[in-house]
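In this supplementary section we document a worked example of the pipeline. Step one takes a protein sequence of length 128 as its only input; no multiple sequence alignment statistics are reported here. Step two produces a three-dimensional model, which step three serialises into structure tokens for compact storage. The input and output of this example are shown verbatim.
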Amino acid sequence: MGDARWGESRAGDSWSERGAGTALMTGIALLALILVAVAGVFVLAASAASKAATAADLAALAAADSARGLAPGQPCEIAGTVAAQHGARVEQCLVEDPATGTVLIRVTVDGPGLLPRAAGAARAGAPP
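The serialised model returned by step three reads:
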């Protein structure tokens, strides 16, 4: 009669730890979900930064061709068109050296969701 029944616990008895494994596994599962969410945010940020860098590179190359007379049009207008085709906006367009056609382009891309804008910059011109 002095024995504990199933489901009852006594001080110092192993029954007092029932459910501890469930609580531990729930905590580990929540931690894993948080880590996956944080990793997903980093992947989205890296993707936006890559998109901005690519848009800046291509816009700078197109603007440099125009500045050197290899393509028709104004360098900054062409840079804006190329950047827009890649989902970016030109923030700065500077023809650094009209003689060699060196152009500096800075673009931004809207980050997905609540992430801030990603920025990219590129310089292009005649080979040395």
